[in-house]
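Here is an idea for our session: we take a single protein and study its fold together. To get us started, please write out a protein record for me. Once you have written the record down, we can walk along the chain together.
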Amino acid sequence: MSEFNSHGFEGTDTNRIARHAGFAPQTFYRWFSHKAEIFIAAYKSWEDLERRMLEDLLRGQASAARLVEAIVAHHSEYKIFRRSLRQVSLDNSEVRQARAASRKRQVEAIQHWRKKHRPPMSEASIATALLQMERLADALAEHELEDMALSPVPAERALAKIIESLLES
């Protein structure tokens, strides 16, 4: 993950990944058939980190504003990785499928949570909200609004409203 987050997908060398992990570069191909495969494994790790963070916050009944802060911070910490994810998924069907599977797991997790706490929502409505959240979080993490000399506050509020729509009935 650190290699992809430091150098992006294109700038990451599998030999450097192997050395960073403490084994010989030729050993890499015993575990992974190609760079996209380890990139997907890193993406799953990123997804797990985000899920655990959000679960902890939800258990503590964090406000939507606190969830926004945490999500944007997580996206900021991994912004080079996230940028690579967006780019690579355009051209690599394996990464695109992994991204779709990740989003599907997120939809299922929200549906499961809502079954316990709130009225159900359709998969399409949840997926739409997640896509909006993801794009806003990435834009906030990359300071896109500030680049346009605009305040990020409306985007933060919009993100909080999307989160509230998922958390409330």
